């Protein structure tokens, strides 16, 4: 008996404004994010709380479109490494048949980028691709609730350093 393959999933469009200085790349949206059509929609993901702490703005309480306005205003861009994949559930380890986003195209259209930051290990697997794009590449600890080995405070410190270096925090 063969295992039934999950249907193909398609990710979210990039969040980027002219003047963006740091591109944060996740791997691929989890189930909660795909359903909501919002980046980092899982309520236990630390992405929005980390930015809230760094910027002194309660992004978590804001409607999603206002969050994105704040992200763009502060020169942060958000996207994912993978444009599409097959996956059951939300774990990166379950990703199959992944297809890369056009990262070179986005970087080419965003000449103000100072760095690319990979949000977690699966995203960082694409560092061989992003290192060839002509901007510094960083690996940050995953904001996912699956990354329970890092405390919020430890994640916050690592993210603070990266955002400050790009003048995004």
Number of helices: 7
Overall mean pLDDT: 94
Name the CATH architecture: 3-Layer(aba) Sandwich
> Total strand count, please?
7
Which spans of ≥5 residues are poorly predicted at pLDDT below 50? none
**Major beta sheet summary:** 4 strands, parallel
Sheet/helix structural class? alpha/beta
Provide the gyration radius in Å. Answer: 15 Å
Structurally, the number of domains stands at: 1
Helix/strand order, N-terminal first: EEHHHEEEHEHHEH
Question: Which shape, going by the Cα principal axes?
Answer: globular
Under CATH, the topology can be stated as Uracil-DNA Glycosylase, subunit E
- Give the terminus-to-terminus CA distance: 53 Å
Strand fraction: 15-25%
User: Which percent range fits the helix content?
Assistant: 25-40%
CATH class call: Alpha Beta
Classified in CATH, the superfamily is Uracil-DNA glycosylase-like domain
